[in-house]
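[agent] plan:
  1. take the single chain provided in the ticket
  2. run structure prediction with default settings
  3. attach structure tokens to the ticket
  4. add a short note for the reviewer (M.T.)
[agent] executing step 1
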Amino acid sequence: MLVRCFDLNDLTPVFDLACSELRERYTPSLFVNLHHYWPEGFIVIEDLGTVQGFILGVMVSNIQARILMLAVRGDRRRRGYGTLLFHRFCAECAKKGVRYITLEVRESNMSAILFYEKMGFQSVGEIKRYYTDGEHAHKMHFFL
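[agent] step 2 finished; step 3 output follows
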């Protein structure tokens, strides 16, 4: 396994992975634009020569980062890929002096909620009708 920063050659596999594993719909240009804001916050995990997962985050302030997306191929889940991505993301945050990380997760996505709780996130509230389909989100925080 190789955990590394995203590069533009990863755009197609990352976009395909986002389309297959996430319910929101994004354009490829979104990934390119977000990559320019903080390249170190866009990390992929490669195995068998193929991107198997990614995490994409942004700096919100000099002490806060936000995870926008985390996806792992369905057949690769529960093998530590998400954990490796998250730990690398935390390391990049620490280099920037980030003190806490936030994210939103669908209230119906119990496996993701349990994963984030296992990583140390705490739920700090709910955002009504956050997603385009009207589903509510849990807002979660993690302190470095």
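[agent] step 4 note for reviewer: Residues 2-103 form a domain with the Aminopeptidase fold (CATH 3.40.630.30).
[agent] ticket updated
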